[in-house]
Design a protein that fits this description.
Elements (H helix, E strand, L loop, with lengths): L2 H12 L13 E11 L5 E9 L5 E8 L9 H13 L2 E3 L3 E7 L13 E3 L6 E6 L3 E6 L1 E2 L5 H11 L8 E9 L3 E9 L4 E3 H11 L1 H22 L17 H18 L15 H11 L20 E4 L19 E4 L10 H4 L6 H22 L7 H16 L9 H26 L5 H14 L1
Helix pairs in contact: 4-5, 4-9, 5-10, 6-7, 6-11, 9-10, 9-11, 11-12
C-alpha cells in the first residue's frame, strides 16, 4: 500500500459514523486481507483493514469497495450481497474465505429487492432495507469470534421465537487474520414504533396503557429467557450452574468500577453532590447484597436490554408461542432487537453466560430513564408512582413465563440479585453520562442514592 492510499483509507474510515475510536487518530493502516466478490462490472471487493494507534493497539474494520471506497452506497452492490447469501456461495480471499449462508427455509431471500434504502440513523454499523421486507446489517468494526447478534438470532429463529426480526442469512470471514461475522440479514418489521419513543409518547397521553404493554413485555422477555435457557445441545448456550466464585467475581468487578469512578468524579458538577464522597457506602451496600444464598443459572442473554432495543409492531408481528396473559384487546406485540450486547464491552465478554436477571435489571433501569427523559425532553409531568408500577407490571409478566429454575429461589434472593445488577448498570450509566450527556447525570445519581437510602 502506498503512503497516499494508506492516508486515504485512514481519512475515510476515521470520518465515518461507525468509526469506534472517535477520540483517537489512527497512525497507520494495513489491508490484512481482501476478497473479490464480483469481478465483472460493477466490480465489488471486500477489504479487512487494520488501523493502528500510537499506543500499539489496533482495530479491524470491514470495507466494501468499488471505485468509490464505499460500495454500500450503490444499490447494485447491496443487492449482490443478498443474492450471494441466497445462493450460499463461498469466495476465496488471500488469507481465508468469505462464506455467504442462508438460513434453511427462509423464503424472504427470493424477493426481487427493487427498493433499497439506507438507515441513516445507524451509528456503529450500516443497515440497508429492501422493499420493507428485509434488512441487512453490515458490521463495520470486527472482533475475532461469532457475533452474538448472529448466535442469538439463529437460535431464537430456529426454535420458533417470533418476537424478533427473524434471521434470514449471514456472511462471515474465516482465515488467518481472524474468524469474524461480517453481516446478518433479517426480516424487516413493518408498521412498528420504537419502544423508547412509544414510552415517551404514552407517558404524555396514556401512561396506564403503556403499563399494560409493559406487562406483555415482561411475558415476552420471560419466554425468550426460558428458550435461551433450555438449549442443551450447544455448549455455547447450554445453561450452567454458576460456580461458587461467580457472584464473588461479579461483585468484585462492580466494586472495582465503583472505586474507580468515585475517585474520578469532577468537583464542579453539582448534580453529583448526592453521592459525592459516598463511594465506600456504595461498596458496603454491594458487599451486603452479595450474600445471596441462591443464584439460579447462567445462560446466554440479550446483554444490552432496554426500551430502545424494542419495537411495538401494531400489526401484531411477532406474537410469541406463549399465549398472552391478562392483556385484553392487545393491538400489537413487542419485537426485540439488537442482540450484539453492550458496545463498550469486548466480544468475548458479550458472549459470556450471565444470569437472565441482568437483562431484567437493564429494562428496569430503562423505565427510570423514560420517566426522567419525559421531563427533560418533553416537559411531561409523569405520575409519581409510575416507575414503581412499571416495575411491578413488567416483573409480574416476567414471573408468569420465566422458567423458575433459571433464577434464584425465593423473592428475597431475586430482589437482592436484581439490585446488584441495577447497581452495576447505574454505575455504567454514570460513567457514560459523565462522558457524553452531562445534563442526564442526575438519572444514575438518583438510582445510586435510592439504593443507599434503601440500605438505611
Amino acid at each position: 500500500m502506498t503512503a497516499s492510499s494508506e492516508r486515504e483509507l485512514i481519512d475515510f474510515v476515521a470520518c465515518q459514523r461507525w468509526y469506534a475510536s472517535k477520540t483517537r487518530a489512527p497512525t497507520h493502516a494495513e489491508i490484512v486481507d481482501r476478497a473479490e466478490l464480483r469481478d465483472a462490472d460493477p466490480r465489488l471487493e471486500l477489504l479487512l483493514i487494520s488501523l493502528g494507534f500510537e499506543t500499539g493497539t489496533h482495530e479491524t474494520y470491514q470495507l466494501l469497495t468499488d471505485d468509490t471506497l464505499d460500495a454500500l452506497a450503490d444499490p447494485r452492490h447491496v443487492r449482490e450481497l443478498v443474492h450471494m447469501m441466497r445462493r450460499g456461495v463461498t469466495v476465496n480471499a488471500g488469507e481465508g474465505q468469505v462464506e455467504f449462508r442462508p438460513l434453511e427455509g427462509f423464503a424472504g431471500l427470493g424477493t426481487e429487492l427493487t427498493q433499497v434504502r439506507r438507515i441513516e440513523t445507524e451509528q456503529s454499523n450500516t443497515s440497508i432495507v429492501f422493499d420493507d421486507e428485509l434488512i441487512l446489517k453490515v458490521f463495520r468494526r470486527l472482533e475475532p469470534g461469532v457475533n452474538p447478534e448472529l448466535e442469538l438470532l439463529r437460535v431464537l429463529t430456529e426454535r420458533g421465537f417470533e418476537n424478533i426480526a427473524q434471521l434470514g442469512g449471514w456472511y462471515a470471514y474465516a482465515g488467518a487474520p481472524m474468524d469474524a461475522t461480517l453481516g446478518v440479514l433479517q426480516r424487516y418489521v413493518r408498521d412498528a414504533v420504537d419502544g423508547w419513543e412509544l414510552a415517551l409518547s404514552e407517558l404524555e397521553t396514556a401512561p396506564d396503557r403503556f403499563l399494560t404493554r409493559l406487562r406483555r413485555l415482561g411475558e415476552v422477555t420471560g419466554v425468550m429467557h426460558t428458550l435461551l435457557g433450555n438449549v442443551s445441545s450447544d455448549p455455547s448456550f447450554a445453561p450452567e450452574e454458576p460456580s461458587s466464585e461467580s457472584l464473588a467475581l461479579l461483585t468484585a468487578t462492580v466494586d472495582e468500577e465503583i472505586q474507580r469512578i468515585f475517585l474520578e468524579l469532577p468537583d464542579d458538577e453539582e448534580s453529583l453532590d448526592p453521592i459525592r464522597g459516598r463511594g465506600e457506602e456504595v461498596r458496603e451496600r454491594l458487599a451486603h447484597l452479595s450474600h445471596v444464598a441462591s443464584f439460579g443459572k447462567v445462560i446466554r442473554h440479550h446483554g444490552d436490554y432496554h426500551l430502545g432495543q424494542t419495537l411495538w409492531a401494531e400489526s401484531g408481528a411477532g406474537a410469541s408461542s406463549a399465549e398472552p396473559v391478562a392483556v385484553p384487546e392487545r393491538d400489537g406485540d413487542w419485537v426485540i432487537l439488537d442482540f450484539e450486547g453492550e458496545p463498550a464491552r469486548s466480544l468475548h465478554e458479550r458472549r459470556r453466560k450471565r444470569s437472565p436477571l441482568r437483562d431484567v435489571a437493564g429494562m428496569l433501569r430503562s423505565f427510570a430513564y423514560a420517566v426522567s427523559a419525559a421531563g427533560i425532553m418533553r416537559g411531561i409531568s409523569v405520575p409519581a408512582d409510575w416507575e414503581l408500577r412499571a416495575r411491578e407490571e413488567f416483573l409480574a409478566g416476567y414471573d408468569v413465563t420465566i422458567d423458575h429454575a433459571l433464577i434464584p429461589s425465593g423473592t428475597a434472593a431475586v430482589e437482592r440479585l436484581l439490585t446488584i445488577f441495577e447497581l452495576e448498570k447505574a454505575v455504567y450509566e454514570l460513567r457514560y453520562e459523565l462522558n457524553n450527556r452531562p445534563d442526564w447525570i442526575g438519572i444514575p445519581v438518583a438510582a445510586i442514592s435510592r439504593m443507599l437510602e434503601d440500605a438505611e
